[in-house]
Amino acid sequence: MILVTGATGLVGSHLLISLLQENNDVKALYRNSKHIEKVKNVFTYKKQLDLFDKINWVEGDITDIPSLNVAFEKVTIVYHCAALISFDPKDEDKLRKVNIEGTANVVNCCIDFGVKKLCHVSSIAALGDTKEGEVLITEETDWNPEKLHGDYAISKYGAEMEVWRGFQEGLEVVIVNPGVIFGYGFPEQGSSVIFKSVKKGFPFYTKGKTGIIAVEDVVNCMIQLMKSNINRQQYTLVAENPTLETVLFTIADGLEVRKPSIYANKTLTRIAWRLDWFLSKIIGRKRSFTRATSKSSHSLDIYDNSKIKKELNYTFLDMKNYLISLSEEYK
Q1: How far is CA 52 from CA 20, 58, 122, in A?
Q2: For the residues of 80-145, what is the DSSP string, one character each?
Q3: Structural domain boundaries enclosing 13
Q4: Domain count, the chain
Q5: 296: in domain
Q6: Are 182 and 326 in contact (CB under 8 A)?
């Protein structure tokens, strides 16, 4: 029996389809039943609605141990996709609670219930920091606690420490560190917000680089890694490292709308994150642009995917064509 946490999210929903296509028995952890309908929409889009009724839904929360005890019964394989994504400093405690403590609970249940193997979905935000003069980030790049990191990145790094603890206690583990994940479904959250912003005429762009990947590639790599004998390894899952300018312009072309036209240099983004902070104090809205995100929007770091490509002999989807296709679906 396979358990998927975070089953009502982008990665989780697409993962369910792939696992069920292989005739696996799957448990799917959910917190709110209204989110299940979003998963059903993905199954419908993928023309796999006949598989939807085969999901064994289990209500629970990774921060609630009693509910996890029910979910883990007869489970031998776990895909841990559940996480909180927020860049608002006010959510620091929630991020630590869900991402670190929640992962610790999942790891402990894996050990207690004799789970054979765990796949943990982390993030490129949890990878290391380049030294002066360097731009390439690999799985071996050291994390520098003296450098500026957002609360989300810190929480995902802390979650990885819990997974490595699980390995030390006898659990087989693999960690994947995806970049920005694009995929069909969930138009009001995650990377889909980028499409919404561009469609509304978002005017700004920067020339910093970021790692991006299609959700189908994330899911395929996870499943292949879990089927293999690979243990105690982590892999950067990035198809390409385009500039943010390229991503926004490609999406604009796909949506057939005006491209962002104002280059936001470092001075402008410094002003922007301070203004965002000010408005959050005045009107109480959640932060969407912080000092850490301002810095990352100009980063020229490149995430190296050579390890996963070599390990699985894997070829990633072409992201330009993929983003254009997604844009057409978004329209």
Answers
A1: 9, 14, 26
A2: E--------GGGHHHHIIIIIIHHHHHHHHHHHTT-SEEEEE--GGGS--PPTT--EE-TTPPP-T
A3: 2-185+211-239+303-316
A4: 1
A5: no
A6: yes
Residue pointed to by tokens 């699980």: 166
How confident is the prediction along the chain (331 residues), in pLDDT tens digits per residue? Answer: 999 999 999 999 999 999 999 999 999 999 999 999 999 999 999 999 999 999 999 999 999 999 999 999 999 999 999 999 998 889 999 999 999 999 999 999 999 999 999 999 999 999 999 999 899 999 999 999 999 899 999 999 999 999 999 999 999 999 999 999 999 999 888 899 999 999 999 999 999 999 999 999 999 999 999 999 999 999 999 999 999 999 999 999 999 999 999 999 999 899 998 988 887 888 877 887 888 889 889 999 999 999 999 999 999 999 999 999 999 988 8
179: nearest Cα among 125, 245, 227, 115 = 125
The reply to whether 284 falls in a domain is no
How far is CA 264 from its chain centroid?
Answer: 26
- Judge whether 206 lies within some domain: no
Q: Tokens 């776990």 sit at which residue?
A: 78
Q: Which residue has the tokens 């910093």?
A: 208
Contacts with 290 (C-beta within 8 Å, 6 or more apart), sequence order: 87, 88, 89, 150, 273, 276, 277
- The CATH number of the domain where 135 resides is what? 3.40.50.720
